[in-house]
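Annotated sample (chain length 392).
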Amino acid sequence: MKRFAILMVLALSITLTFGQKNLRQTASNYLKSGKLDKAAEAINQCIVDPSTAQDAKTWLIRGNIYQQIAISTDANYLALDPDPLAKALDSYENAMKYDPKKEFYDDIFVQLTWERNNLYNIAVDAYNKGDFAKSMTNFARAADVIAIAEVTDTVALLNTAYCATLAKDYDTAKKYYLMLLEKGYVTPALFVSVSDIYRVQGDKDNAMKYIQMGKDTFPNDPDVFLGETSVFLTFNLTDQALTNLLSYIKTDTTNFSVYFALGTIYDKMVNDSLTDILAREDALNKAIAAYQYSLQLNPEHFDALYNIGALYVNTAATIELEANALPLDKVEEYEKMKSDITKYLELAAPYLEQATIMQPNDVNTLQTLRLIYSRTGNSVKLKEINEKIDSL
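Output written by the structure step:
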């Protein structure tokens, strides 16, 4: 009798196991025939049964069922679950967990890749529409999805960080850039990006820390070098920034960005030397020379064109303030200053005109040109620029 009882129990166990596997096959058949409600009902019985709850195939089928629910256009199927995609991804994660021999890895990977690409395309579309927050979220989700298959999607992670920066979500950007560093993805741009976020946030120590890491890893990279210069400039370490750039151009005279950065430093020195006319003129000449050399290397550089024009206009404005402060008996000196004002405005015009060719609708450039034409008596160009501004 005892032996008979044991055999009965064993037979019952085998029957139950095969019964649940038959139910799993039933769920698969319902999925193939598009009966998603019945498929979900059947597979959800399997995941709570001890005989199939830790079976990779069970979870793979469940993932496929809920993925189809997520993309269904049938309102009845969509109503089956408030977040079918989350259930699908959870199912694929469990399928990976219960598949140590990776018997179903290729099937799981195909499904996860499909979903990753779907989310990636949503992110790209949002980016093209200027919705950087939505783009960031979906790039991050795309990376999370493919990570279930133990794959690091560096492209999606980089795009997440980049879009987070555009959305001014600097903490999220930092999180993903640092995640990439931790995963061993190391590029000059990555160190610069991390440092730049800390720089924007006013964290001098960390800005310097990561740019120094970049220098240690890529000692001759110009972008890292410029990144360090930006940190110096942000925290008013002008002398260090200037030393950096002057040292760099001794070995490389082909990088227009370096000369543009050099121009911005001398540009700042013009403003810092308002009370010292000789120092101001020296800084002005050096700024113009640096910007002009930058334009020789890259004639299409809008910012260099604009900055030269702005520098001349600002110099004219400074001289005008000084002229207006002169005593009434300083007539000759006053007339000389008026002549200098006109000279600098006329020097500014060609650069700003070239800038408007590159960016025809830049309002700041157009309004500055209107000021110049008005002050220098160029009525023909003044009429043209007014019509242009009115048409915007």
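Annotation: Residues 21-103 form a domain with the Serine Threonine Protein Phosphatase 5, Tetratricopeptide repeat fold (CATH 1.25.40.10).
Annotation: The two ends are 98 Å apart (CA to CA).
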